[in-house]
Amino acid sequence: MASLESLNFDNSYLRLPENFYQQVKPTPLRDPFLIAFNAEVAQLLDLDPCEVNPPLLTKFFSGQELLPGSAPLAMKYTGHQFGVYNPELGDGRGLLLGEVVNSQNQRWDLHLKGAGKTAFSRFGDGRAVLRSSIREYLISEAMYGLGIPTTRALALVGSEELAMRDGMMEPCATVLRVTQCHIRFGHFEYFYHTRQHEDLKRLADYCLVRYFPEHLNSENPYLAMFRTVVERSATLVAKWQAYGFVHAVLNTDNMSLIGETFDYGPYSFMDEYKPGMISNHNDHQGRYAFSQQPAIVHWNLSALAQALLPLIDRDSLIPVLDSYPDLYTQAELTEFRKRLGLQSQSKEDKDLVQQLLTLFTKHSVDMNRFFRCLSSYDGSDVAIEALSELTNKTTEPSPELRKWLDLYDKRLIQEESDNSTRHHSMLEVNPRFVLRNYMAEEAIKEATEGDFTLIHNLITLLSSPMQENPDFMHYTEAPPSWAGSIFLTCSS
Ligand code: AMP
Ligand code: MG
């Protein structure tokens, strides 16, 4: 096991040509203090949590000192923001500190978000505020706990430094993001749109070796890589849809090549199922509304496909791109089958899911509470009453719920498993706890007053979201009324 000073850095991205990045040091944050450190993520880096000295860690992750072996850089990328190509993007407030190779030969990027200005900061101050940093820190662990692919976060550091957001001064912070991949669709778009085709190939080769080595000997490695990106993206968005997650800023520069949820901003888990839910106040047209996500990810994949045209002929790319809708539909069905406790497959499942979503929409159901409740469903009156409470807030089931439960009862008869096996499998995929915006808001409020207890508690709770936790039962109830008026913007 390593200490912070002896992490095994090997910075492969730095070996790429200089036009791939700008080498730049972090701008130290003023008067930093450690808020949270994730011992589980530390293990990924072979970092012994017991060997971590908090004051030193605070220096490293506030940019005051450089980790031995780190060689910070800001990556250059571009991308489509809200459908419009922006050639000016790149890491404007985050730096890749370097890559740590662990004893299992896994290569992890350490990215310090909020590290100060770079050549790509444009009009920005290079900072991340405490509010958005807490949200990223919490959601990374919450998504991981749910089994939804995501970047992770090792540490959260606060500071006395202030930055202006939405007309107010707010404290700054940093998050140390850990993932194997910081390559965005926008990395490819940069080299394509600036006609640097040799470097486009270099980037693709880098990604093949690092992320898709199984395709190196394929007949067409680039095409095989693209197919995997399409598959993983479809699987990822299916999980978002199945758990009511709204990413809210699905620009192509926020799309990870390896299909992880990436670059958290004004995201939400929906407290009430509303397909048109827009989680970003700045998204006036609802481009990134909940129900739009599958189609938007397809759109983003087409932007990536276009960027790959110098490497893959059009006739080969198009069928792979066109395979996305079916892949998505299948993946979505797979997710819902799991949530419904169905081990077998039946051609009626699509309709069963569709009718359930119609029911959710009609009554603005809290889908995550509904699925948890359904996990103990045994057809009894008590079970039906509990589900009724969650749909139309009375013990008398609505006609739609009755109709759906009839379908579900019939479907369960086709299953070979008994109630208890089904309950067991459902309790493993239907969380008791999800990170609702109001929970994050409470943690932010307390942290602003200097109390970080709730951040720590939420991390413990959300890393095992399927487990009962008697101390936090209030989070299993309906959210408070003010939860509906939380206002999220790009700066969140
Ligand atoms: P995001 O909305 O975080 O995905 O960021 C979009 C682009 O704006 C990226 O190129 C970021 O690096 C850049 N950016 C966002 N916030 C800031 C900031 N405060 N200072 C500099 N650049 C920023
Ligand atoms: Mg981004």
Topology of this structure?
Layout: E1 21-23, E2 33-37, H1 39-44, H2 54-60, E3 73-75, E4 79-81, E5 84-86, E6 94-101, E7 107-113, E8 128-129, H3 130-146, E9 152-165, E10 168-179, H4 185-193, H5 197-211, H6 221-243, E11 245-246, E12 268-269, H7 293-307, H8 314-322, H9 324-340, H10 349-363, H11 367-374, H12 381-392, H13 399-414, H14 419-427, H15 437-448, H16 453-463
Antiparallel strand pairs: 1-3, 2-9, 4-5, 6-7, 7-10, 8-10, 9-10, 11-12
Main attributes of the structure:
492 residues; alpha+beta; 12 strands; 41% helix
The portion of residues forming beta strands comes to 5-15%
Query: From the alpha-carbon coordinates, what is the Rg to the nearest angstrom?
Result: 23 Å
Instruction: Label the structural class.
Output: alpha+beta
Order of helices and strands: EEHHEEEEEEHEEHHHEEHHHHHHHHHH
User: What proportion of the residues is helical, as a percent range?
Assistant: 40-55%
Based on Cα principal axes, name the global outline: globular
How many beta strands in the DSSP annotation?
12
Task: Write out the distinct hetero groups bound to the structure.
Answer: adenosine monophosphate, magnesium ion
Query: Number of helical runs?
Result: 16
Oligomer category: single chain
Largest sheet: 6 strands, antiparallel
Low-confidence stretches: none
Mean pLDDT: 97
Q: How widely separated are the two ends?
A: 36 Å
